[in-house]
Amino acid sequence: MKIPDSAALKASSAPQKKKRLYQSLFFQILIAVVAGVLIGHFWPTIGSALRPLGDGFIQLIKMIIAPLIFLVIVTGISAVGDVKAVGRVGVKALLYFTGATLFALVFGLIVGNIVQPGAGLNIDPASLSQDALDAKTGHAVPKDAAAFILDVIPVSVIGAFANNSLLQVLFFSVFFGAAIVVIGRERCLPVISLMETVLELIFKIMSWIMRVAPIGAFGAMAFIIGQYGISTLSTYALLIAACYGAAIIFIGLLFVVAWGFARVPLWQFLKYTREEFLLALGTASTEAVMPRIMTKLTNAGCSRATTGLVVPTGYSFNLDGAAIYLSISLLFLAQAFGHNLDLGQQLAALGVLLLTSKGMAGVPGSSFLALSATAAALGIFPVAGVALLLGADRLMDSMRVVVNLLGNCVATFVVAKWEGQFDRSVMLRAFNGEITNEDTAIMLGKEELFAQQELERISGGQEPSPKFRGGPAADAIPQFEMSKKGQSTTPVCPD
User: In this predicted model, what pLDDT tens digit does every residue of 7-19 receive, in sequence order?
Assistant: First the structure.
């Protein structure tokens, strides 16, 4: 994207038309979510039939996630130019994830012991059937730690991209980016410029996909309400209240962590990312907003390398909302069968949940697999008892999605600050509505606004914004241009 020269400043200085409310993506998604709830509640048959709209939108997002992660990580690592720094980011992220997940599980157990959501239900084990649980999990068996680690290594790079295995794509991306650093950025400049150009294309495609986000949110919400119904709330009232109450308190703790470690005002961040959080709520999927949330984080001062490593990894290793739900649900089931777990049993359950909660993102029935593995390990209540949660599980999606997504955003800020790859002044500019780098402008479809802001910055004697956070200036990477017939425009590497 080319910034006009200063001669165009006068032409661009005319006051911009204020965007009308109905043109706001946040307003459009909000109306779509409300309409979906109404359709699903009053016409449940129609609501259930609208599921393809939500599924289709999520598939559009998944279509670009694997190449996006690969390109973001490789170009981010090449810009950092330090393989050791990448390793430090990975280690710090895993340390943070382990601590956050452990705290979320312990916190959930504390809430479950206080609220006692399953007390007095007195479920008869003889009345249970394994069939409903098998239908939900597809007879899958929970993976042990060794199998999970081996699954991170792709058997085939092409297979990792084809299957959208994000951890496998991330694993290969780190190696590819490290190889560029070792061989030398200047020597690999043609490859880097090609990747940057392809990434601009991905960003542009993403900006187009987001135009149909309200349709996806409408279809997904109509299906959820039409299929499961609002009336289900009364059946699991205490369990739902315990989970949502715990989530609110946990979010409050995230506010403290974000401000204490990185001086990030999380309320302003939520206002800044309101479109992404509302879309995640509407579609009940954090994957639906992964590309946009990564872009917003880099626009808010986190380096591309840190964001590219922390966010996709966090989708498997840092599911705080799911951890809270698992620990409370475990106590709910034990109490429903008349068992009060002692401290030793709860500590044993904590260890099992800490392992089984990893790698849950994108796995159908993953929460049931984790609880089934824990039930089998403890042997206190039948594994088939996990089927009791089938009616409530979908209603927990909103809680899990918000806490998972916010937890990963806070993790990105913390790790970026920890590694010295976070610029708070840029964050404040972003919260004030500025576009702080070129790639964000393309992803959000705000190239004209960015061009005007750049003219004002340059005319005021300020440095131009970088191509991406933690990367070079916009003109430092030559554009990879397709040659016309009889011409060659291949970028020339400096000697």
Answer: 444 444 444 555 6
